[in-house]
Design a protein that fits this description.
Blueprint: E1 6-8, E2 11-13, H1 18-24, E3 32-37, E4 40-45, H2 49-57, H3 66-70
């Protein structure tokens, strides 16, 4: 995909196509990290701990309870293999 850079004050701006923004979870007002590495510009969503909790529990932070956070789930790792039998 190709885009054109435009002057924006003393900086340079770029528009992100709506489908690309949707595919990456970006929206107007979203915070991003932007940095350069090996002469490439990398832009990725920036999450804070509040965002991580809301995404994990699929509800607003104000509705997450201690019961939600304290809940543990048993993981099924499948059948034992070889000599690493765990009781």
């Amino acid at each position: 995909m190709e885009a054109t850079l435009t002057k924006w004050g003393n900086s340079i701006g770029i528009r992100i196509p709506s489908q690309m923004a949707a595919d990456t979870g970006l929206h107007s007002g979203a915070r991003v990290e932007i940095y350069s590495r090996h002469k490439e510009i990398i832009i990725r969503p920036k999450y804070d701990i509040k965002d991580m909790y809301e995404k994990y529990y699929n509800k607003p932070l104000s509705q997450i309870t201690a019961e939600d956070v304290g809940r543990c789930y048993e993981a099924d790792w499948g059948e034992d293999v070889g000599a690493e039998v765990v009781d």
